[in-house]
Amino acid sequence: MTRRSIPGTGALLSSSPLREAVAVHGRTAVKAAIHKAQQEAREGRLSSEDVASAALAALSRLVARPVLNATGVLIHTNLGRAPLSEAARAALSAAAGWTDVEFDLATGRRAARGRGALAALGEAVPDAGAVHVVNNNAAALLLCALALAPGREIVISRGELVEIGDGFRIPELLTAGGARLREVGTTNRTTARDYAAAIGPDTGFVLKVHPSNFRVEGFTSAASVAELAGLGVPVVVDIGSGLLAPDPRLPGEPDAASALRAGAALVTASADKLLGGPQGGLLLGDRDLVTTLRRHPAARALRAGKLVLAALEATLRGPLPPVAEMLSADADSLRRRAHAVAAAVRGAEVVETDSVVGGGAAPGVRLPSFAVALPERFAAALRAERVVGRAEGGRCLLDLRTVDPADDEALVRAVLAAGDPRCR
Ligand SMILES: *Cc1c(COP(=O)(O)O)cnc(C)c1O
């Protein structure tokens, strides 16, 4: 292959698909992808006709690609947790340019950052004296450790030294924040007396962590927030999933309002689990403590971006987010949709199944659902079509509960593209 046969950068940039890619990725990224593909062609690793498509392929790998979640796991951590509502997506787009995130249009002066999101959160949880939003729940806990217990003790039950996932352990996060842990009780039983005996002048706060992704059954007991609230030190409650008020469909899942009413000084939670919003960390509770957290120097390093604040506000004020819709979808409509999808794909079957909440929330709750069952090999073929199903019992199940009804047709197209279930 000769060097001359390799297309030049200018010609490639003005050719149709790459010219359009400039609008999406910007000129610098497109040029870099072209140069890399040209280099590969020079080294004989790519034929000159393939330079444009190799550059495009490299660019398409740059973007996070949308996928259809047919796993039946409502809050799928590996798929980005909660999908945003239309209102939140519109708010993201509106906030992408200049926005009044820290500006008062009436006075022309600087204003409290993200005050719209903070007001919406405060109104959603009237029991909170004040609220603050940070990057995620881990950041909320870290800020508590940094601001309320530097060089001091956090009193925590041995039954609540939790690993959330991917090696993220709450005890290690807290000690990384410069606090010492004072472990009390045992794995299965911890009483209010255990806490009381450990509290002293060195105590920064008592922390209760919701063991969100596992259950301990049998001879167990834990101290309630109400019991701990009377011990004379702040009680911080990590409720995990971000339920703001009790939900009868999720018995046993702690919520912010109940924890505050029981006497919690602060509640921490994620915004992208059951709340159904963008990645964020919520802090709600005592006004003075929230002010201390907000004024700590590390608060700046943990703060939420303008896009998050905009999407959070829209999630809180707008219509129910998809997580809530999925949670309340009734089994009959799921069955009808599963039959409609299966009818369009010869050889597909409909099976009864259970969806789960996921995201380390409500581990015991099973939501009755219906799925389209395909041969197991479809799992990989469908991933190539950006559809993620669930492998179960030697089959690939597509659970309709986590599929937006508006995506049913796309699901059928993806299955048809992935192969014929009747062929081996
Ligand atoms: C998910 C979870 C966390 C971590 O939240 P992030 O928002 O992912 O940082 C912390 N604590 C509990 C109990 C959780 O369930």
UniProtKB/TrEMBL annotation:
Give the matching Pfam families: Se-cys_synth_N, SelA
Q: Chief location of this protein?
A: cytoplasm
Sorted alphabetically, which keywords does the UniProt record give? Answer: Cytoplasm, Protein biosynthesis, Pyridoxal phosphate, Selenium, Transferase
The compartments listed are: Cytoplasm
| Domain annotation L-seryl-tRNA selenium transferase N-terminal: ranges | 3-42
**Its catalytic activity?**
L-seryl-tRNA(Sec) + selenophosphate + H(+) = L-selenocysteinyl-tRNA(Sec) + phosphate
The EC number(s) given in the record are: 2.9.1.1
Q: Which cofactor does it need?
A: pyridoxal 5'-phosphate
Q: Which family does it belong to?
A: Belongs to the SelA family.
Known function: Converts seryl-tRNA(Sec) to selenocysteinyl-tRNA(Sec) required for selenoprotein biosynthesis.
Please report the name of this protein according to its UniProt entry: L-seryl-tRNA(Sec) selenium transferase
Q: Which organism is it from?
A: Lentzea fradiae
Q: What is the lineage of its organism?
A: Bacteria, Bacillati, Actinomycetota, Actinomycetes, Pseudonocardiales
